[in-house]
Write a structure and sequence with these properties.
Layout: H1 5-31, H2 38-63, H3 68-77, H4 83-95
Length: 96
């Protein structure tokens, strides 16, 4: 098991939380409640965390010799709400 894996798992959870914050807090605040000022902060934060997740997933996939298909699943999990939490469970099972 690679020593970078716990960091990647942490990054994936944080990125998943930022996606949920964007979808379920910032977007309703902007479009339904009329508070657009929250969107730039949450949007930029999520964007930076997404890029960190993407680079980290490439690094860990190379170190762990993941297939391109599995890396694709990892990437898709970052686009789906709650996807990174399911990914964390699967990676935890792989490491055990």
């Amino acid at each position: 098991m690679d020593s970078f894996l716990p960091y990647f798992r942490t990054i994936s959870i944080i990125e998943g939380c930022s996606l949920l914050t964007l979808l379920f807090l910032a977007m309703p605040a902007k479009y339904y409640w009329g508070y657009p000022s929250i969107m730039p902060v949450v949007g930029w934060s999520h964007g930076i965390l997404f890029l960190i997740f993407l680079v980290s997933s490439l690094i860990i996939s190379h170190r762990m010799n993941w297939s391109i298909g599995f890396w694709g699943v990892v990437f898709l999990s970052s686009l789906l709400p709650f996807g990174t939490f399911i990914l964390d469970f699967k990676i935890k099972k792989m490491g055990a």
